Amino acid sequence: MRVSRFLLVTAAVVAAGVTLGSVSTADARPAVGDRPSPSPSAATPTPTPTLAPPTTAPSFAEDFDTNAASGGQFAATYANAWQPYPDAMSNKYYSGEVISAHDGIMDVAMDGTRGAAGTFGTQQGAWSHVGGTFSVRARATGGDDNGAAFMLWPTSNVWSEGELDFPEGTFQGTVGAFSHAMTPGQERHQNGLHTTATWRTWHTYTTVWVPGESVKYYVDGTLVFADTQYVPTTAHRYMFQIGNKGEPGNLEIDWVRIWSATGG
User: Fold this and answer.
1) Calpha distance 212→217 (Å, rounded)
2) Torsion over CA: 254, 260, 167, 84 (sign)
3) I want to staple 78 with a disulfide (CB 3.0 to 4.6 A). Which of 16, 58, 82, 98 is the partner?
4) In what side-by-side order are the strands of the sheet with 190-198?
C-alpha cells in the first residue's frame, strides 16, 4: 500500500549542466560501504532542530503515480523527471532494465548482477543546482550486501568540487550522511556519520545545501548532521547509484522534491 506522503522541507536551490555521456567519473568515488572513517573536524554533532514546513512550491516534484514497466517504458514516461545512465554503462548500470513504476513508487529491482544510476530532474534543469533543498522518501527490501548512494555530484565531474552523500549505505545497515573533502587528491576524506535510520523502514531524507556556508542533513525532518567545512559552491546534480552485487531486493522511492531558486 502507498505510504502517505508528507513534506518536511523548506529552502533555496540553484542550478548548472552536464551530459549523460560524461557521468562515468562518478565511478571514481569510493564504493558504497567501502569508506575511510569520517573526520569529525568542522562538523556539528547530531543536533535536534527540525525542518520548518515549506513556504513555496517545489521547483521539481515527482510522485511516480503513473504505472510504467521496465524495458524502456519507465524512461519514456518519466523523461522529464529521470535522466538515467545509458544501459550497460561501465558494464554495471542497467537502469532501463531494472526500474519500473507501480502503486505510486519508483521500483529499482536488484538482482545481484545489474546496478542502476541516474539523475532526478528535467532534461534542462537537472544539471544546474548550486545550493538548495533535496528531499526523497525511500526504503529498501532485501538487497543485502548491495547498497545505494543518493548524492549531489559535481556537474563538471571534477570530484574536488565536492560530493554530498545522503542517504548512503549498505541495505542491511544504517543510513549514512557524508560530505567529501574538496582538495584534489584528498576527496576520499569526509565529514559524516551513520544515523540510526535503517533502509528497511520508510524515511524522508533531506539535504539542505547553502553554497560555501553549510550542508545540513535531516531524517524525517530532524537534523542529524551539519557540516561547515566541505561545502560545494559549483553546479551539482541530484542522483543515485546502486551497485550490481548482493542479494535480490527492491529499492522503492515514494517521491522526490527539489526546491530551486532557478526553477530547475
Assistant:
1) 16
2) positive
3) 82
4) 82-84, 116-120, 236-242, 147-154, 164-170, 174-180, 190-198
Measured in whole angstroms, the distance separating CA 73 from the mean position of its chain's CA atoms is 22
Amino acid letter, residue 45 = P
The Cα–Cα gap between 83 and 71 comes to 15
First vs last Cα of the chain: how many Å apart? 31
> Helix, strand or coil for residue 98?
helix
Q: Which three cell numbers stand for residue 73?
A: 517504458
- pLDDT value, residue 54: 66
- Which residues, at least 6 apart from 57, have a Cβ–Cβ distance to it below 8 Å? none
- The pTM (predicted TM-score) of the whole model is 0.84
At 251, the amino acid letter reads: L
Taking the C-alpha atoms of residue 154 and residue 7, their distance in angstroms, rounded to an integer, is 26
Query: Is residue 6 predicted with pLDDT exceeding 50?
Result: no
The mean pLDDT value of the chain amounts to 84
Please answer whether residues 61 and 137 qualify as being in contact, where contact means their C-beta atoms are separated by less than 8 angstroms: no
CA-to-CA distance for 246 and 264, rounded, in angstroms? 35
Quickly tell me which residue has 513504476 as its cell: 101
Residue 214 has pLDDT above 50, yes or no: yes
Q: Look at residue 60 in the predicted model and tell me its pLDDT.
A: 93
Q: CA torsion sign, 225 to 226 to 230 to 234? A: positive
SS3 content of the chain, % helix, strand, coil (to 5): 10, 40, 50
Residue 234's alpha-carbon distances to 248, 255, 262, in angstroms, are 37, 26, 14
CB 205 within 8 A of CB 223: no
Beta bridge partner(s), residue 127: none
Show Cβ contacts of residue 217 under 8 Å, excluding neighbours closer than 6 positions: 166, 177, 205, 206, 207, 208, 223, 224, 225, 226
